[in-house]
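Q: What structure does this chain adopt?
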Amino acid sequence: MLYPERLHQFTKEHSDAFAAIVCGLLLLIGWLALHLGFLGWALLLLPAAYIIGGYESAREGLTTLIEEKELDVDLLMIVAALGAAGLGLWRREYHLIIDGAVLILIFAISGALEGYAMRRTERSIRSLMSLTQDTATVLRQGKEEVVPVVQLQVGDEIIVKPGELIPTDAVIVEGYTTLNQAAITGESLPVEKTVGDEVFAGTLNGYGALKLKLHQPPESSLIQRVIRLVKQAQTEAPPSQQFIERFERAYARVIVVAGVLLVILPPFLWNWDWETTIYRALTFLVVASPCALMAAIMPTLLSGIANGAKQGILFKNGAQLEMMGRVRAIAFDKTGTLTTGQVQVFQVSTNSNYTRSDVLKAAASVESRSEHPLAQAIVEASKNLDWVAATEVQAFPGQGILGIVDNQEVIVGKNGFLQKYVANLPTNLSDIAEDWEREGKTVVWVANSRWGDGEKTSPHHPTTPSLYQVLGIIAIADQLRTQAAETITRLKKLGVEQVVMLTGDNQQTAESVGREVGVDRVYAELLPEDKLHVIRSLQREYQTVAMVGDGINDAPALAQASVGIAMGGAGSDVALETADIVLMADRLEKIEVAMRLGKRAQAIVKQNIAIALGFIILLLIGNFMGNINLPIGVVGHEGSTVFVTLSGLRLLKK
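A:
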């Protein structure tokens, strides 16, 4: 059964080529029969060539005419070919039937070549689909069972062996490995994954065996959502293509009217004979048809979308690829966009007689009992130090935290919180803390008690502030993305006139980050609706404005912007739904790649339109001057169509 299925698939994919080959053979044999005087055979074989080579074009043309009440170029080609054949029969100049058959053949060959060219783009896009597994190994009642991915249910435990593709998005419950996520995020280096981490369908498991737990339906996986969005991009025509299609409908009517006038008027105005008049009118129908113009845009944009997908840039449709080439201003969200969104310890300054390790160990002992992001940053910075978790921990939200470590009370928090326990904060540390805060960093103070067991009265209720001493201070800040400043510099070199930063943070922190990355303007202390107003203001000044954000609290601004670009956050639902472009690997430098793709797409589309119009004008001039016949007109017309299609495929290259 497998062989017939493959044969059917092969013939389906190459049906246009088969039709063109058979049409060419019939045309060749018919031409030989005509030259050898076998008129009957010629009149039998040549119509067969017309039917086989022109069937698909005639069907599409008639369908458009009947269902949409519109003329298209397919029908015009068939009319021109049948007109040539009719003229040949009428005048008994049978070479005209050959001319019509040549028109059909070249049109069929052109259609087959265009089909192959477009399928190359589609194959690049469909390479995403090859990343999806059909089956998964599920652990049920202690036994491994292979089931179709579509039958998986939330809660199923999946076994993935070394070297296998991850079948669907899931969470690791057992095992440690490295995953190759290049196909999803465009990131070439493997990423370490362990218990609690989410893994994504289509990524390649490394050396470790994994047990995964399904936390969402398979159809909601990142790869499936990407595939759906790419399919959507293939079917949605951008504004430029919509304009060309509207132009084609009006243009086709003009061609028909002009063709009718060319049949009627020249014999009376210029004394042309009827044969010449009809022949020139038929050639006019061919050379004036806007096939090349129609192929000038979509192959280019689809190639750009495919190229972007391979590099971890997901364009939702061709319109956004076009728009990226025209962006004049870009607004960046701060947290999670220009920064990683993950705070870390930057600096530690100590009081006399204490070391950096003393400060971090004391702070980590208490903060290990907290879920606060600042606490996690301190614990992460102390992971290679030897410390024990505190007991009797009590947290004071927005102020600090304290607990007992080795019979001493440790206090970690803001300076105002520590002043309840410490009579006078060290002046040198206070000055350093002020400098850090001006730089936009959060300062955490660390102190402990100076009394022993015999002096301890009640934890959390000191008898006097003099019993506590400051160990040091810790500066914590959100980590800037390493490529942020360089990306902004490159975007300005590409022609972006204004780069701004939008954030809900305080003005001091925002300006500090803004100076580091090199933005032109900083807007701080903004609510989501305030970001929306800033985008509208930029649009009034610069027209085409891109917004880059995390796709959650930036959703209104992303929707308002000419182009909304989301940091994918490894596949955030809101990012995929709200933004026009998603950076799958969360890499800012991909914005520059997207802009370059947009600018290249614009340039190629303009080149293709100029080539298409140039060919039409040259062929029309040649036709009226009598320098071209019908086959030459067809070659010029179809050649220009194939040329612009192949030109558009240049965007498949990086």
